[in-house]
Design goal:
Layout: E1 3-5, E2 11-15, E3 25-26, E4 33-34, E5 39-42, E6 51-52, E7 57-66, E8 72-80, H1 98-108, H2 120-124, E9 134-139, H3 148-155, H4 157-171, E10 175-181, H5 185-194, E11 201-206, H6 215-223, E12 238-242, H7 243-255, E13 261-267, E14 275-280, H8 285-291, E15 299-304, E16 311-312, E17 326-331, H9 332-335, H10 350-354, H11 361-369, H12 373-378, H13 389-393, H14 400-415
Parallel strand pairs: 1-14, 9-10, 9-12, 10-11, 13-17
Antiparallel strand pairs: 2-8, 3-5, 4-7, 5-6, 7-8, 13-14, 15-16, 15-17
């Protein structure tokens, strides 16, 4: 499905936290007039990223909404004037070295667009920069239904290539590997041809198997290196960026327009006209779904992200975020497959076999319920990437991935 650009909606709601790290503070107030690309929220934290207006119009509300982590966060509502006037601050950045390059990327508001939302400028400035040699470009897109990154590889090929050249140049990297699942032969062929003249660059066809796109899984499949518990990709000489993130780097360096739109897949058995769409950040799910023909059947679940790592949104008016790569809507019949009641563990070990890191989810669940933090650490629950494979294969339908998430939180809280 080729990407279709959605017209600007009547209003957008732009959350002040769309990234890992500290929440931004609104820099606008009620009744302020704003323009496209204007900063409307920022933070002085290193791990954070500014928020920009995706539309021109008037600030009509500053309120709290439920964030993706379940906590309340500030959000700025802007009623659009449909003029899409560009703010005077939108200028092509001046870049001469890695420091100015990273500063420009921070100013752009770029975070990981593959789902994690980690601020990109932080990845560009690792403490062990001299030991980082390899750029891994993540084009795996392994979750079912989602095809937004595939469209990016087919439609934004030149930008991906230019983005690779920029990151390779300023980080002084010798090797570039683009990892793409082998169920995307067109993307593989197109990028193989496109990077042929880049020294040290190659495309690696990966087996189409979830969770191939997980950062640590990708690193292992592309380089054979294992990222230890508590370590980062830079600790094994790698920096990992999603294909859409890399493409945006080139667009921003060419135009100076910050991150204000998002390409995402709209699909599921309840959607009338599934599409890949490019929308203004802050557009409501309701408006996006209406643009895709609305519902053909009453939805039971509306998911932000994929069916494995996404989550059900609390309202159909939830806004599109920077790292939102899909909106999925499922009927009651489809949702019922994932809503069967829990039954006792039968010790079949399917969860262990399914885990990409060979963790023991059933044992982790037992340790969590006992409040045994030492056991949780020994079972290496912090290695869990929350891919959901354990819960998916469990015949007892136990909420194993949710327990893993809570177990990691328990370790943090008990360490305070």
């Amino acid at each position: 499905m080729e990407t279709v650009k959605m017209p600007v909606p009547d209003k957008v709601v732009i959350p002040m936290k769309q990234h890992m790290g500290r929440e931004c503070t609104p820099t606008v107030k009620l009744t302020d007039l704003v323009k496209v690309g204007q900063i409307i929220g920022d933070t002085d934290a290193f791990i954070g990223a500014p928020i920009h207006s995706s539309v021109s119009g008037k600030v009509t509300k500053i309120d709290e909404i439920i964030g993706t982590d379940g906590n309340l966060i500030k959000a700025v509502e802007i009623t659009t004037d449909k003029l899409q006037e560009i703010d005077e601050s939108v200028k092509v950045p001046e870049v001469t070295d890695l420091q100015s390059f990273a500063a420009a990327i921070r100013a752009s508001g770029l975070v990981g667009l593959g789902g994690a939302g980690f601020p990109t400028h932080v990845k560009l400035m690792p403490k062990n920069l001299d030991e980082v040699t390899t750029l891994l470009v993540n084009g795996a897109e392994c979750e079912p239904y989602i095809t937004a990154d595939n469209r990016a590889m087919l439609e934004d090929t030149d930008d991906i290539v230019e983005g690779i050249k920029l990151v390779k140049k300023y980080m002084n990297l010798s090797t570039v590997i683009i990892g793409i699942e082998d169920n995307k032969p067109q993307a593989i062929a197109k990028l193989q041809a496109a990077v042929a003249d880049i020294e040290g660059a190659s495309v690696k066809a990966l087996k189409a198997q979830y969770p191939q796109g997980g950062e640590k899984v990708l690193i292992y499949e592309c380089t054979g290196k294992i990222v230890p518990e508590g370590k980062l990709p830079s600790d094994v000489g790698c920096v990992v960026m999603n294909v859409s993130s890399i493409a945006f780097v080139a667009k921003y360096m060419r135009t100076g327009m910050p991150l204000i739109t998002k390409r995402l897949t709209v699909d599921g058995d309840a959607i009338a006209e599934p599409k890949n769409v490019e929308v203004a950040i802050g557009t409501s799910f309701s408006d996006v779904i209406d643009f895709c023909g609305g519902f053909k059947t009453e939805p039971k679940k509306i998911i932000m992200g994929g069916p494995m790592m996404g989550f059900a949104v609390p309202t159909i008016n939830y806004p599109v975020l920077k790292n939102n790569n899909a909106i999925l809507a499922f009927s009651a019949a489809k949702a019922a497959e994932a809503e069967k009641p829990e039954t006792p563990c039968i010790r079949c070990a399917r969860c262990v076999n399914a885990c990409p890191f060979s963790l023991m989810p059933a044992a982790i669940e037992k340790a969590y319920k006992a409040g045994n933090v030492d056991a949780l650490k020994a079972l290496k629950v912090n290695l869990c990437m929350e891919c959901g494979c354990c819960a998916y294969v469990c015949p007892a339908k136990r909420n194993l991935v949710s327990v893993n998430r809570l177990a990691k939180k328990m370790i943090v809280e008990r360490s305070k």
